[in-house]
User: Fold these one by one.
Assistant:
Number 1:
Amino acid sequence: MTSLSNLVRSKGDPKIIRSGPSSLPASDRMARNLGWFSIALGVTELVAAASITRALGMPGREGLVRSFGLREIASGFLSLSVDKKAGLWSRVAGDLLDLAVLREGLRGFNPRRSTVSTAIIMVAGITVIDILTAKAAGAVHARSDLKPADYGRRTGFPSGVTAARGRAAESFTTPRDMRAELPR
Amino acid sequence: MRALVWHGKEDIRCDTVSDPEIEDPRDAIIKVTSCAICGSDLHLFHNLVPAMMPGDIMGHEAMGEVVETGSGLNGKLKKGDRVVVPFTIFCGECEQCRRGNYSVCEKSNRRKDLADKVFGHATAGLFGYTHLTGGYPGGQAEYLRVPFADATHIKVPEGISDEKLLFLSDIFPTGWQAAVQCDIQPTDTVAIWGCGPVGQMAIRSAILLGARQVVAIDCLPERLSMAQAGGAITIDFKTESVIERLDELTGGKGPEKCIDAVGMESHVSMAQPDTIMDRAMQMMMMENDRPHVLREMIYVCRPAGVISIPGVYSGLVDKLPIGMAMNKGLTFRMGQTHVNRWTDDLLRRIEEGQIDPSFVITHTVRLEDGPEMYRVFRDKQDSCIKVVLKP
């Protein structure tokens, strides 16, 4: 992508020779991957709900699967956004919902019990990944627990605030195009 | 050379890139001695400003020494000169430049075709910013090519530290213009939303220009303590009602002058449902900017007051109460800063010791630590307010 963008630079513009390490921490990269996975899964649930319920031996739950698809897409966008922590925890909540619904597939006679069991193991695995990533992203982006610095001595005025008050007003006239006050 | 390069959302890297070259007789090359990360760089970091491209060099606050000049500078700049580079590139000759409206220079935007389509009419070229403003490589680098360098520079004397002068490039004149646009009177209350670097400069400017009281609004203790040090009365919007406190401070009439030093990424909080709606809409690309501060300013501003907007907005906003603003007869003034309109005066004030803008620097690091500092600054970690980079 960057070598492609080098092509559109003008002659004297610097062009990338070698790339350095990214500002994106590993947890954010993982959040991105999970976000795209969420969107792909959500779209699949929307367009192939009937196939999914058939595979799980849970006919009649197509509406629920489609609503879960919408939820996955929303979580995906959130995980790709700057608010990735919220996106990742919403994925965890979604995983728990998935597990609760899948458990129903183990009750009573279901010829697809083994498929449901496999799905439960997969969702449980993804839940662990989601929790670990959400925790890691939370830690990377958290404000420190230490007391915030007190910048109470940084006045910016070498002679103090009192001396600075109105000091520029003596020697500055607001330009005509920026005046607001009417003559009194 | 090394430079901080945008590769995508939240992805800045310290890359090795080719050195810039003179393209035009009016160009100059600067060896950068100091540069800084600006709050508006975070909008690019978040990919909220359209038309960024992977490979764009970041940074629009830089200063250094002239090391190469084009043949058309007419002696206005020579090798060895120490200069601060204003973030707005301007020709100095067009109708807008002659009026002092440098940030809307008619000639300096090399992507005028693109900008005309998006903005109706192109504005000036800016360093290290979107391709809508020319896509010029920025100053978070070891070297910077300055177009129209015969006009686009601020010559500064030796003997004053980089730290005192660097912010003439952007945040000091930006805070100053925000206050000047208010035409501050000795009876005025000036309310300033956002105590980041531009907010801090706006507070000091309003104090220097003689406001009766300056009120600063934020929620971060370190920023509020710095605002208070500069002479402001502070409001922590997480623990107090902004509207009630401003009414209390102004005898129920509201501040005459309001400054938005927040811009498009206002804080999202459960206590302010409109901010949640804005965030959701922004995420779904249904609006570009989160205008909570604008809504609050329009509501609280005294009728016939002034709203000054130095904070950056990029496109469309939703639910802006324009009817309220119209009926109250508010005046809006906004725009990118006409940097060189103010810098001679501001440089004199620094030299005279009226103000020392270095108070805002909380972190000074090497250029290669820049990518990490983008994250630290964005996450408000380590009480970070302003990062200076040393290439």
Number 2:
Amino acid sequence: MRPNISAFISGLIFAIGLGISGMTDPANVLGFLDITGDWDFRLAFVMGGAIAVHAALRPLIHKRARPLFAAQFPVITASKLDPKLLAGSALFGVGWGLGGYCPGPALTSLASGAQQLFVFVPAMLVGMYLAQVVQARRSASAPTPSLSATPQP
Amino acid sequence: MISSIIFPLLGGALIGLSASILLLANGRVAGISGVVGSLLAPVRGDVAWRVLFFGGLLSGGLLLAWLRPVSFGPPASLSTGGVGLLVAAGLLVGFGSRLGNGCTSGHGVCGISRGSARSIAATLTFMATGALTVFLARHIF
């Protein structure tokens, strides 16, 4: 129960932070990305503020042996840049620049009832699902030592 | 100047606080595309906290809609072309963020806070293609 409560509180604070910061208004986002036009630099301070707080708190949190309600802290294994990371990020950026919504603000803004979110969010979920299908297929078809050594039925 | 950045800074600080709570309590990275996207291929025992995080996002959205509706900007009226654009934007955001293992929150906030080279590269990439897209849409076409 407790991890569910903490996850809810985290989501709640995240959404309020997005709203207060200006991230849930796509006009602000597009103004921020319009660096060659009348550039609205304000949203740079959202990322700055978030990184400042999280980068300061992370080392304190990691002094603990484990999280409060979980067995271990996240283990992040990937360290190299790969084409998938860069291609995915590039496509994400194009979509972000077209609509002015990234995933957090889009999901939060559903609560406003604005109709554009009821078009954008379902499309986003379909896109996420497609990416997961593509990646599952790729990892299933990638040869592994044990599979390549034995003939396929 | 100060007044124009106080809300972005304050909101950003809350986002950093939220990510820190999720790390401290749940041992999870607050990357929205991963937290919510993983619900599309649910794994037993790894669903409830994700649903509750999403519920928190929506509840926060409802609070904003009630107390600070200006947060969402003016409601858009949708033309046929507008719908097509939104569908394309949504597909790209969803597909790209999952393929690239993260979005503005996972790479841009959590990853950079960790000093991850992958996240720095991802953030520079989506900022660049986002800016290029806006440049083409606003100043060329």
Number 3:
Amino acid sequence: MTAKLVLCIGTKKGLFVAESSHKRKRFDLRGPFGPGVGVNATLVDDRASPKIYASSCHPFFGMKLLVSSDLGHKFKETKSVPLFPEGDGRALANIWSLETGDNKKELWCGVEPASLFRSEDAGNTWEMVGGISNHEHARQWHPGNGGLCMHTIVREGSRLHLGISTGGHYLSEDGGTTFVAANQGVGAGFVPDPFPEFGQCVHKIARHSDAPGRLYMQNHGGWQDRPGIGVLRSDDHGKNWYSIAEGLPSDFGFPIVVHPHDPDVVYVVPLEPMTRTCPGGKPAVWRSINGGKSWKKLATGLPKHDGYFTVLRDAMTFDNFKKPAVYFGTTTGQLWVGHEGGEQWECLFNSLPPIHCVKASVLE
Amino acid sequence: MATRVQLPQTLRDYCREQAQIEIDATNVGEVLDGLKQRFPTLYRSICDETDRVRQHISFFVNQEWIPIQMANSRSRNITGDDVVTIWTAVSGG
């Protein structure tokens, strides 16, 4: 059976699904699903019969979670969404991250205000994870520009890494029961203490299963008086972090992704920190092939000038073919694919709504 | 006598496609209570889990706009002759 490539593109106006063969020559687009409603998180769960999930963050009627069992031809709402328990006082404002768990129907979900939920039945019922949602720090976290969001869930065996803006990086080493703030070396440019215990504006965290203990982080950098806190790496499961930003034009950005077949190959999209757009109007992705020791600019095929877009934290991803392609979506509604490891860029879609998130999956 | 409650198209998926339902209520708060009991998913689209009415929802009793996000609005009395209309506010982007 021929493999299909499925791209899930969460936008300000709903979810789009693009499908292609392994050649990536022609993409058929369908959608928007959850029309008119912003999608901040999407997930392709290919552990059994493939399912596509998408948060549908309705400003009028609250959060919905959409699910498709036919590769994104039809979607329906799950039977429930994560809801704070009665008497908690918090109300679900957004769904920012969706990840699979160990068991076939297990899902994890990070929300705004920053809290974690877990489902054991493919999203039909949810339970709040008290170890982080009611952490002693939780009521001291502050919202960033995007809200107080738990945007990153990274699983590493019994370890669970969470990224919170602004809360920082939290680590569980017991499968998600208890959590500690693990931010040694993660700086902040907006509080008096340059290296607080928690409260950093982490933008994204990534890892590769072939490099146990290693994590990459795009933190909120771009501070002239506190340089080198934006692009970070940890080699001890996130307990200590150090800068790998040298050689980049800016250490501000949102996404950070790792090549699916090589833990030393990592990608970022540096942005000008004040405008949060491409420096000088010249978009470029930057790649390191040595774990962050050095960086190379990848801009062939991208606009040479007048490109002032933003790439948001979940809007960059890889497919997982043997020769994978990298993708990013922009706030100006363009979806780009980078062939040959990003050496050559091609615009797949030019006029979508502002893109919040992109996920790619190869399905048999 | 039951009060008629009219619902916007976008919420009718959650109440078996009914444009209008009837609820025994003597004030606006009891309308919400009735919705919560009979159509919990519909209710959750109108109110969040703290029971606050969502920001972009509008309530009318007949032609009168009710500032439903204010707690004291729930005590607004209604009779069986009144029509309560739940609508989406003009906002977006």
Number 4:
Amino acid sequence: MTHTQRQIGESVRRNEDARLLTGRALFVDDVRLDGMLHVAFLRSQHAHARLSSVDASAARTRPGVVAVYTASDLGDYWRPGPLLVPPPPIAGLVFNTCTQVPLAKDKLRHVGEPIAMVVAESRYVAEDALDDIVVEAEPLPAVVDLEAALAAGTPRVHDQLPSNLAAHAVQRKGDYARARAQAHTVIARRFRYDRGVSAAIENRAVVAQWDPHAEELTVWDTTQAPIPIRNGLAQLLGLLESQVRVVAPFVGGGFGPKIMMYYPEEVLIPWAAMRLGRPVKWTEDRQENFFATTQERGQIHDAELAVTKDGTILGVRDVFLHDTGAYDPYGLTVPINSQCTLLGPYDIPNYESEFTAVFTNKTIVTPVRGAGRQHGVFVIERLLDFAAKELRIDRAEIRRRNLLRPEQFPFDNQILFQDSAPLTYDSGDYEPALDTALEVIDYKRFVGEEQPRLRAAGRHVGIGVVCYVEGTGIGPYEGARVTVEPSGRVRLATGVGTQGQGHFTVFAQIVAEALGVEVSDVHVITGDTREFHWGTGTFASRGAVVAGSACHAAAARVREKILELASHELEAAQADLVLEGGRVHVRGDPTGGIALGALALKANPLRGAVRPGTEPGLEATAYFGPDRGSTASGVHAMLVEVDPETAQVEIKRYVVVHDCGRVINPMIVEGQIQGGVAHGIGNAFYEQLVYDDEGQLLNASFMDYLLPTATDVPNVETIHRETLSPLNPLGAKGVGEAGAIPTGALFAQAVEDALAGSGLEILEIPLSPTRLFELMERPR
Amino acid sequence: MTLGVTVNGARYERAVEPRLLLSDFLRHELGLTGTHVGCEHGVCGACTVLLDGEAVRSCLMFAIQADEHEITTVEGLAPSSGDTLHPLQAAFREAHGLQCGFCTPGVLMTLVPFLRDHPDPDERAIREALSGNLCRCTGYQNIVVAVRHACDAHSTPDR
């Protein structure tokens, strides 16, 4: 038996593109149903207030309004949402669970929190009726600043708690105090790292339809996790899981916040559809998205690095505050990612990390592309930069001296990761990646010749190089079902939703290679619980790793079935069979044999007997669950020039050396990296949510909150390295978030280098031309 | 009010409220859902369509303003029969110029008149032309490549 056609590793053009390019692809807001009603939400104008009354009587009488619901109308259906990700079992952990509510009842805890829901014949009428609702609320001082949040006398976001403390966790490895005592130098700084909105260009949307005849609920949802949403809705609504179908069709970007949030809108629209007996649709507008879709917010780190004279890391201590927003339904994924990712690709024998998560009167914080990892990378990379400067060691060299060596894998970091598994790196080969990045960007020549020459000419040019790792591809599991149809085409169903990652192609490549068919002949279905209803979702850079491995396993089983049946039909030993071009033939007889479609028909006969011990059809379902995630890694390098008059930063070159194990489709991996870098550049230099002291978001539009445009983002030069993961049969590691993770650290280092001699230290991200100008002007 | 408009070559007459946005009219009255809505304040460009051959933001226009005009949406780009793509659409597939595809219709509709007026643009000009369309997935790099692909394919004589 031979594999004749390589599909894995090829830049196969995408199966999904024709639908997307011609406007035929279905997005949730495209769903049109007879009798469909439309929803608008009345949202809190206050960051923090006592809610005394909501009078919707006038709204209810407006022509075209079908129903208005407030918290008191929800009855037993009103209950706080689930804790989605229980925190890992860290010794001594404190965690106060306060999850979001469907409609505010007694208190308003952030601007944009829903208060009432209007259902009307059109969205226009529903929005008109919002003005008819009278809300009485007594404003309270808002908790905005995360340091002030814990001060005595600060108002509490949640009255039932003694303070605004949401969580406290300490993780330790080795003995940092002893390491510090032995250090030649200790570098200590305070860092701030703020994040913004995910800004998927498609806002959220939900459409629900109750079929009273079939007693079935269908929900179209812009979710990254249709199966958990189905399961949760069934439980909430008192239905069997099999009575609920959740469809996540094409989704216009996810980036984290479209995960299984059980957003208020997500639980209310299906409820209203059942209650009213008519289909109901809600589509978020962009302003709502700024207030009501989860975000990633700031952290403040007080960190120190203990090093020897030659720059060897003895230990790191980090104490940080994490802003979790008004509620904490997603547990501690973001701060634990920060805590774990700080360790990076380095051998850090002693580590002490303590964080305190606080409630504030701001939108809920959940993972956004990178999910807190960039905060950790920023801290360690900046500390290394300052250590290098102080010890007069080259920046690249201090990193090289501390990189883990290939023989150290698997490497146990002796702390717990966000998935509750030990933070153990499966495989890695870091030094060659650093060398490649330095070589491609011509580091030595730039630092030795070009930079001095340009500086002498008055130009402010700088270079940056940073390393990072990313924990990806975590469990628990995903599944896939592969079916050869009588047409000879192959049907592949899997549970993960898709938001642009190329699943229709990457999964098809895996199956096509196993079955010897064309990638275009594999028809992939994702994100429809009627088609596949076991699984979790698309997050933590896990689609290709976990669902991809399940596709691989299911395809391997179908391949066995094909060979078994073909061996019988062709009267040949399995070892003599060749599977290629959509046919099975005996080696040496390529024109003979049997087509897969014909074989599929024979596997499902209308007469005669299916042989004992066999199953009908050429179909198999398989699952894959890794014990723990695989660790991707990379090095980013950048050349910049800063205009000292305007503080504008021009990126001259951007190089990424990336290792995500087996690359299934280089074109798609490069696309993921390019998009991630753009997202990271936005985070580093353009995007920031600006709140005033009253918790009002001041820049809730794309006119005021700047996303990077085509003129702001450089071309990214990507180099792949493939250090295979031993944890899955593909050897794959995740890539979806990678590009966005080290960008802030890189930006800070390169800009600081461009302004070298000024004494400026960049201790915060995001910057902006304005902020950078302020920092440059600040007396030192 | 009664609106008479030609969309992708077909004539429509509809009674519309004066406040109905052109984007909502196209999507929800005519069912042409290929035009997407990303911000409703004219920044993201996802809703871009052609009005008498020029790119406009359909979220910033009322439907009635299109009265007696000609609109082209993404559905009108490729020939309606079969799986044939417009050369620009084909170039986007070839160069991986799209990921989630939500902004893509607006990007295409921005580029069609741009390429008509600038058949051989350099990278800077392409990026300037694209700067009114937000894409969160691609980092724009492969969109630029796709545009060059489309130009090169167009200038190949034996095509």
